[in-house]
Amino acid sequence: MEKQKVHYSELGLVNTKQMFSKAMAGKYAIPAYNFNNLEQLQAIVTACVETDSPVIIQVSKGARSYANETMLRYMAMGAVQMAREAGSKIPICLHLDHGDSFELCKSCIDSGFSSVMIDGSHLPFDENVALTKKVVEYARQHDVTVEGELGVLAGIEDEVSAEHSTYTKPEEVEDFVKKTGVDSLAISIGTSHGAYKFKLKPGESVPPLRFDILDECEKRIPGFPIVLHGASSVLPEYVELINSYGGKMDGAVGVPEDQLRKAAASAVCKINIDSDGRLAVTAKIREYFAKDPKEFDPRKYLGEARKELINLIKHKNQTVLGSAGNA
Ligand code: G3H
Ligand code: 13P
Ligand code: ZN
């Protein structure tokens, strides 16, 4: 059977345009939470409805092959429906995280995504421009918004892995935005993907993000939405819980919340969070199994994990990103 083409408006989804202009004016950031399964998506919707926050639900290439693209589209549609039945009007955007080819972005646009990222950050500037522009030209025809990236984050970005980060060069951003026509731009200012963001020696604290680079970028593209990837805080309570119940995550460290609050008040309009959710889920499941080794009903331990994820997302929206109350 051939895959059915669907436009995101039929699913009740929205693109990022209005979300970002409101976030820029209101000095907060839209949360972008990754999901791969039912419990994660239920937690995201529940927490964002309860905090009245706009939300971007995002899917990586890995999530797409884990959960199936068509299944994901219907899950997103279910998420919108679930919010509406709860009496909430929160805007929900379905976004492709770290798209690595035109074909992948096109496939997502055709299957109901309302926003895509084309990550050409590992390519030479001109090739990044050419690839991004091609995606923008296709996306425009469907009113889908596009995120591009300049500068490389350390850590694993799906199949692309970089050992060291390369900060964004502010002198390139204006040219990139003009030539490609992107709607938002991810930049590299010291964050990285995963749970081990900084290698700290005993007694050392986390180095501050490069707000000077962020400022320089803002000056060159005033009022333009900037995106921060690798923005998990790797909350110590989860790392401790994981380690105390048999896990081995020594040295896991993330971006302090006060730095993310500062970023959210700037032109940073979208903040990506995945690892923090993974840690919360893993911590609660490890704890559950250790305390109740006889239990074998997944609803019990996944239910506990989901509850924790709801608390975490509410905290992010209310205290870190400032998106709560802004739907
Ligand atoms: O940027 C990476 C995201 O955390 C997605 O991770 O490729 O393992 O699904 P993933
Ligand atoms: P974290 O690994 O810090 O959660 O970053 C997620 C991300 O950037 C997804 O694109
Ligand atoms: Zn990312």
UniProtKB/TrEMBL annotation:
Signal peptide: none annotated. Transmembrane segments: none annotated. It comes from the Bacteria. SUPFAM superfamilies: Aldolase. The keyword Metal-binding applies. Its cofactor is Zn(2+). The keyword Lyase applies. Keywords: Lyase, Metal-binding, Zinc. Pfam families: F_bP_aldolase (PF01116). InterPro entries: Aldolase_TIM, Class_II_FBP_aldolase, FBA_II, Fruc_bis_ald_class-2. NCBIfam families: cbbA (TIGR00167), fruc_bis_ald (TIGR01859), PRK07084.1 (NF005481). This is Class II fructose-1,6-bisphosphate aldolase. It comes from Pelotalea chapellei.
